[in-house]
Design brief:
With about 375 residues, the protein is an alpha/beta fold. It is about 30% helix and about 20% strand. The protein is built from 10 helices and 15 strands. A hairpin with a 2-residue loop joins β14 (about 350-355) and β15. The chain is globular and about 65 Å long. It starts with 5 loop residues before the first strand and ends in a 6-residue tail after the last strand.
């Protein structure tokens, strides 16, 4: 049997998802990381290997955008070019549109909520993104809605908390049904009252933070006590405020909320709400927007290390993606090589030299 082709990266500094290692050597075989050694000296190339001098650049785990809305192959290529090797879709109808795009060789893998749960009276229903027959007027349809999403192949359940929107009883019923199917529940909540309703319902993750009022001490304490996770999507919120100024909605409460959540120890995941929807309150480009998200998280108080973890190890941990998010032997070879040290300058994540997705090197880059 022929030896598998390998790629060896030497003279590379590795951020493994937790800390920055000294110059090292890493080997990829097929789609896995097969060795990491502290040696950074030249490796002899063979007929079955490619050897790359990384010139002391920094190697990161493939980035994970924890909130996107996929729009076909072009979106996948945009994600890959920006070093994103996994994307978590937070709303797609029908899910069958996305299914063929989930695990294409050499392109980012995608998980999805499929159709989110929303009310006929809510703002999302006015965007015509969700078929009328799937909108939920009351709690008695919640269990069937969740069962249908599970049958379709949704990886987790997304619900829209808003006022007007799903009432508390319906939110509660959706969470109960999803947990009965052992599915995570992610709630959209971009104002303070819906954020509180999502917490009352017992969701696992809240995406967005309020634009009207900052989270208060009780809101933050409940996030901590109930071990809830936040995906702030500051890029999207910054865009909404800039594109559609509305009385009572400003960026300051969002930033203050992230600062408070982080100081309290709430896990923060990096997500952008990247989308190309017609009528979107803020179109957000796929790929490059994640780098802006990292910068905004640092501006809100996260350390550079924790911002990096928000786009690597932490989304992998909280979405149960045990094969990725870190640079370790046996993990999937999803890797991003960048110029500079992101622990000193978070903007270094934009200076991409090379990307590997499932062991396949992406075209382009500087290598």
């Amino acid at each position: 049997m022929a030896e598998p082709m390998t790629t060896t990266l030497f003279n590379v500094r590795i951020f493994n998802g937790y800390t920055l290692l000294p110059p090292s050597t890493l080997t990829i075989s097929s789609d896995l990381i097969t060795s990491i050694s502290s040696s950074s000296s030249l490796i002899t190339e063979s007929t079955t290997s490619t050897v790359i001098d990384c010139h002391s650049h920094t190697l990161l785990p493939g980035l994970i955008d924890a909130h996107i809305h996929l729009n076909g192959i072009p979106s996948l290529h945009a994600l890959l070019t920006s070093g994103i090797t996994t994307a978590l879709d937070m709303g797609c109808f029908p899910l069958s549109k996305l299914t063929p795009l989930r695990s294409l060789p050499g392109l980012p893998s995608v998980l999805s909520a499929g159709t989110p749960a929303a009310s006929p009276s809510g703002q999302h229903s006015k965007l015509n993104l969700i078929p009328t027959e799937l909108l939920l007027p009351s709690a008695d349809r919640a269990a069937m809605f969740v069962a249908d999403r599970v049958t379709e192949g949704s990886d987790y359940i997304k619900l829209i908390a808003d006022v007007p929107g799903l009432d508390q009883a319906t939110l509660n019923a959706l969470v109960e049904a999803a947990h009965a199917h052992k599915k995570l529940v992610i709630a959209h909540a971009a104002k303070k009252a819906p954020f509180s309703m999502a917490q009352e319902a017992g969701v696992d993750i809240v995406t967005h933070v309020p634009l009207d009022l900052p989270l208060d001490a009780a809101d933050v304490a409940r996030m901590v006590v109930e071990q809830r996770v936040a995906i702030p999507t500051l890029t999207m919120l910054e865009g909404i405020v800039g594109n559609l100024p509305r009385p009572g909605l400003t960026y300051a409460p969002a930033r203050a909320s992230v600062t408070a959540l982080y100081k309290a120890g709430v896990p923060i995941l990096a997500g952008t709400d990247a989308n190309t929807f017609t009528g979107s309150p803020s179109p957000v480009p796929h790929g490059e927007s994640l780098h802006r998200e990292l910068e905004l998280l640092v501006e809100a108080g996260l350390s550079n290390v924790d911002a990096l973890r928000a786009a690597t190890a932490l989304p992998a941990k909280y979405f149960g993606l045990e094969d990725r998010g870190v640079v370790e032997v046996g993990k999937k070879a999803n890797l991003v090589l960048i110029e500079g040290n992101p622990l000193e300058d978070i903007g270094a994540t934009r200076r991409i030299v090379g990307v590997w997705c499932g062991g396949v090197k992406a075209e382009g880059g500087k290598l």
